[in-house]
Design brief:
Distance between the termini: 17 Å
Structural class: mainly alpha
Helix content: 40-55%
Number of domains: 1
Largest sheet: 2 strands, antiparallel
Strand content: 5-15%
Number of strands: 2
Low-confidence stretches: none
Number of helices: 4
Radius of gyration: 12 Å
Length: 64
């Protein structure tokens, strides 16, 4: 399963990049490097703090 979260949705939930950084123990500079989509490892951490953040779960398709 893959978690897809938009950076803008995370910022709405935590009010700022600094708020995101504090919530998951990273720097605000790291958050600034994310682009439009939160890296999956960080998205999982954010969801542990606030499961209500808008996100999508995608199933990995396995051929065979």
């Amino acid at each position: 399963m893959q978690i897809v979260m938009n950076t803008s949705d995370a910022i709405k939930a935590f009010k700022s990049k600094a708020g995101i950084a504090k919530a998951i123990g990273i720097t605000k500079q790291a958050v600034s490097q994310w682009g439009d989509v939160v890296p999956e490892s960080s998205a999982l951490k954010l969801l542990r703090v606030d499961p209500s953040i808008k996100h999508k779960q995608k199933d990995h398709k396995v051929n065979g």
